[in-house]
């Protein structure tokens, strides 16, 4: 029985037989050339064409898709494929020109939570490190449904994905930050910190740190909204990353109190509570095993930095030699929040775009068929086809 898909063994043997460095180059016969080109073209996907096909599906009314047997999982798989395509900045910007951005944003209001979540994840990929797409999404009023899902979606995953998309949309985007502030975004972040989902809390803390680090004047806003009390509560969280995020936020607020005693500028009650929390963290760190101490490097440095900033003296961790362990450098706590906004693949694509390097060839291992719109073409040994539902789901959120 003939095997489905390209004959990779045959292609490899053919390539090796024509690339022997010890012999002069061989002239290809027309038959060999034709076979090689067919084998390569079978693996090539016209990305723009596929994006247009996906756009057509997104523009199709939901009831029509359902009548053709298209399920919410099929739509999610299709959005998975779209996300892979728009990891290229060029393709991300092309999505608007082919009419796909607006229907994608429409999926943020879909009745199915998994589609709302996946649509937000695709939006996040589109706007990451991409000022042009950030502008296009803002002009298409994409921030509004993202904020709605972030604040009130009944599904915590959809809320988390919406927050991730907002983070990517407003990062290094002054109009986006201004719109977020006007929409009472800080109050929504405060409410998110009260969630029972550590993952949701971590994303909120990362965005808070970024906003405070980039806009020092907002420290007064978050203080008036009661963030210090919430952050102090989270500084005792059982989740290590949540603790670090809370300590990082408290450190940003403490640093903002220039020209005055950081601890003295708070209420006596808050000052005593913060000191007690820091003492508890120092005690907890002091009792850690060597392995746990290594994993808590940033927390150790944050606790010491926050104590020193608030009380103008080193913490007892420094006296115990626990701020910097042997073999560790004495650098300040690193800015780990930025890694949640710029995945390596997206940063790589951005660098290529900035260098004006031509985009890579549009290749994909499988060319999923357009779901629900007509019968699939016949398969043969040189076909690279497949169905959209066969692709693996990906969750690139951190």
Automatic annotation (TrEMBL):
Keywords per UniProt: Repeat
Matches recorded under InterPro entries: ARM-like, ARM-type_fold, Armadillo, Hsp70_NEF-Inhibitors, Nucleotide_exch_fac_Fes1, TOG
Amino-acid biosynthesis found in the keyword field: no
Name under which the protein is recorded: TOG domain-containing protein
Stretches for region Disordered: 348-398
SMART domains: ARM (SM00185), TOG (SM01349)
PANTHER family according to UniProt: HSP70-BINDING PROTEIN 1, PROTEIN FOLDING REGULATOR
Organism: Capsicum baccatum
Any one annotated GO CC term: endoplasmic reticulum
Keyword Hydrolase: no
Single GO MF descriptor: adenyl-nucleotide exchange factor activity
Pfam family of the protein (one): Fes1
Domain (TOG) ranges: 46-291
């Amino acid at each position: 029985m003939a095997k489905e898909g390209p004959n990779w063994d045959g292609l490899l043997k053919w390539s090796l037989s024509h690339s022997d460095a010890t012999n002069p180059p061989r002239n290809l016969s027309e038959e060999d050339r034709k076979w090689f080109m067919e084998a390569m073209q079978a693996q090539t996907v016209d990305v723009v064409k596929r994006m247009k096909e996906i756009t057509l599906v997104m523009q199709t009314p939901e009831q029509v898709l359902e009548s053709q047997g298209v399920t919410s999982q099929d739509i999610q798989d299709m959005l998975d494929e779209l996300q892979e395509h728009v990891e290229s900045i060029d393709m991300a910007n092309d999505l608007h020109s082919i009419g796909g951005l607006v229907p994608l944003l429409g999926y943020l209001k879909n009745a199915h939570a998994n589609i709302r979540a996946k649509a937000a994840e695709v939006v996040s990929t589109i706007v990451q490190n991409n000022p042009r797409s950030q502008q296009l999404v803002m002009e298409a009023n994409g921030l509004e449904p993202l904020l709605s899902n972030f604040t009130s979606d009944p599904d915590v995953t959809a809320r988390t994905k919406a927050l991730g998309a907002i983070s990517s949309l407003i990062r290094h985007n002054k109009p986006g930050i201004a719109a977020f502030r006007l929409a009472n975004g800080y109050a929504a972040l405060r409410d998110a910190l009260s969630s029972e989902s550590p993952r949701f809390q971590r994303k909120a803390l990362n965005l808070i740190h970024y906003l405070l680090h980039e806009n020092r004047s907002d420290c007064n806003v978050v203080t008036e909204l009661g963030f210090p009390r919430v952050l102090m509560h989270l500084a005792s969280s059982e989740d290590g990353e949540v603790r670090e995020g809370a300590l990082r936020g408290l450190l940003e607020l403490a640093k903002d109190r220039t020209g005055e005693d950081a601890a003295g500028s708070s209420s006596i009650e808050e000052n005593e509570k913060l000191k007690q929390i820091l003492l508890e963290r120092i005690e907890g760190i002091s009792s850690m095993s060597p392995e746990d101490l290594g994993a808590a490097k940033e927390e150790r440095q944050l606790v010491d930095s926050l104590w020193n900033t608030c009380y103008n003296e080193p913490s007892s961790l420094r006296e115990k030699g626990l701020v910097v362990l042997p073999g560790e450098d004495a650098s300040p706590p690193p800015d780990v929040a930025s890694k949640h906004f710029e995945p390596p693949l997206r940063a790589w694509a951005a660098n290529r775009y900035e260098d004006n390097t031509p985009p890579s060839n549009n290749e994909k291992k499988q060319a999923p068929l357009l779901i629900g719109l007509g019968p699939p073409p016949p398969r043969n040994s040189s076909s690279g086809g497949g169905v959209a539902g066969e692709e693996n789901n990906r969750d690139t959120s951190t």
